[in-house]
TrEMBL record:
Protein name as catalogued: 26S proteasome regulatory complex, subunit RPN6/PSMD11
InterPro entries to which the protein is assigned, alphabetical: 26S_Proteasome/COP9_Components (IPR050871), PCI_dom (IPR000717), Rpn6_C_helix (IPR040780), Rpn6_N (IPR040773), TPR-like_helical_dom_sf (IPR011990), WH_DNA-bd_sf (IPR036390)
Domain of life, source organism: Eukaryota
GO CC list: proteasome complex
Plastid in keyword set: no
The keyword DNA-binding belongs to this UniProt entry's keyword annotation: no
Any GO BP: protein catabolic process
Keywords from the named record: Proteasome
Length: 422
């Protein structure tokens, strides 16, 4: 901050607003914060100056300066109520979070704030920052540390009975366990979040997040119809708020349609004026390409879609997991249809028909034989697949077993009766 200062008045704020360059406005606001006056009016003006300054620094992408600003404001925090302090701290943390590529800086900033709040005994602010820190650690894939932080935080918040924060933490725990592939614990945490949410008013954005997580967990259990209804609820909530998560809810809705063999409905949803038209872009184009490939049962179109929309499909872990299952199913169906007329066929011929590499087809056929999807064997020396005819079922064997079983029951019954007579 500059050594000189400007009076903390409305005129100084207007002067900053009228500045020609952002750097000039930032310098003026720093000078306003240097004003030693601690009157109620001066404190109010400084609070507004901090808000304006954090917005300007965010727009300029000066994340490190926002971190330094928070450290320099600590003497000021002792002059204002704790509630206002919490609001300013969270505002600055949110401003840093809106600057791209600042994940590590955000984690460092949150840890710094947690240490300060512990020293100042500001429990409520610390709990909220720790929840934010756990979310950042999860995004950074530092799962063990995030889980340890959440486990202690949940016990503490339950004792204080802060329902709104408890909903947020339980929801975060559900996401964390899902990332660790622990589905039972993810469902238990989500149930706890819903239970806490039923006791209070939950903001629409938070309710949308709960519905989105519910849809993800139901989709993981292959219950795509229920998942679709949850994704639709989440989409309506986010769409009303113009939240960026609306597009992901819509994307997962389309995924559910494809997974329940209703790929033809995807084009209608995307072209709907109330749903799809305002969200046109690569996310929806990717799902439309997958739906077209699935409708035509074309693996080559499927793989083309995966290559053309790698970011939207492969890099989205939820979509990628379900599309992998869908691709395997489609591949197995196509292979079974192609080998059905043959008793012996070259693997290279099947690969040509299905338009896939030979080694890929050979690997999948061996897996299908081991999984008993069909009876056959691979003659790798000759490069052929030999398909066995279905063995005719011998009806005598099961009938014999049933007869012996019935005779055993009769003998046991006779033994019990003879024992009673004796």
């Amino acid at each position: 901050m500059s050594s000189s200062h400007l009076p903390a008045t409305s005129d100084s704020l207007f002067r900053a607003a009228d500045a020609k360059a952002p750097s000039e406005a930032i310098a003026i606001l720093y000078q306003v914060l240097e004003d030693p006056s601690s009157s109620s009016e001066a404190l109010r003006i400084k609070e507004q100056a901090i808000t304006n300054l954090s917005d300007l620094l965010r727009q300029e992408g000066r994340a490190a300066e926002l971190q330094n600003l928070l450290a320099k404001l600590r003497p000021f925090f002792s002059l204002i109520p704790k509630a206002k302090t919490a609001k300013i701290v969270r505002c600055i943390v949110d401003a840093v979070g809106k600057i791209p590529g600042t994940s590590d800086l955000q984690i460092s900033l949150c840890r710094e704030i947690v240490q300060w709040t512990r020293a100042e005994k500001r429990t409520f602010l610390r709990q909220r920052i720790e929840a934010r820190l756990a979310a950042l650690l999860m995004e950074n894939k530092e799962y063990p540390e995030a889980l340890n932080l959440l486990s202690g935080l949940i016990k503490e918040v339950r004792r204080l009975d802060d329902k709104l924060l408890l909903v947020e933490i339980d929801l975060l725990e559900s996401k964390l366990h899902f990332s660790l592939r622990n589905l039972p614990k993810a469902k238990a945490a989500l149930t706890a979040a819903r239970t806490a949410a039923n006791a209070i008013y939950v903001p629409p954005a938070q309710q949308g997040t709960i519905d989105l997580q519910s849809g993800i967990l139901h989709a993981e259990e292959k219950d795509y119809k229920t998942a679709y209804s949850y994704f639709f609820e989440a989409f309506e909530a986010f769409n009303a708020l113009d939240d960026s998560q609306a597009i992901y809810s819509l994307k997962y809705m389309l995924l559910c349609k494809i997974m329940v063999n209703q790929a033809d409905d995807v084009a209608g949803i995307i072209s709907s004026p109330k749903v799809g038209l305002q969200y046109q872009g690569p996310e929806l184009d990717a799902m439309k390409a997958i739906a077209d490939a699935y409708s035509k049962r074309s693996l080559s179109l499927f793989e083309t879609a995966l290559k053309n929309f790698k970011t939207q499909l492969d890099e989205d872990p939820i979509v990628h997991r379900h599309l992998s299952s869908l691709y395997d199913t489609l591949l197995e169906q196509n292979l079974c249809r192609l080998i059905e007329p043959f008793s012996r066929v070259e693997i290279s011929h099947i690969a040509d028909l299905i338009e896939l590499p030979v080694h890929h087809v050979e690997k999948k056929l061996s897996q299908m034989i081991l999984d008993k999807k069909f009876a056959g064997t691979l003659d790798q020396g000759a490069g052929c697949l030999i398909i066995f005819s279905d063995p005719s079922t011998d009806a005598i064997y099961p009938a014999t077993l049933e007869t012996i079983s019935n005779m055993g029951k009769v003998v046991d019954s006779l033994y019990v009766r003879s024992a009673k007579i004796a």
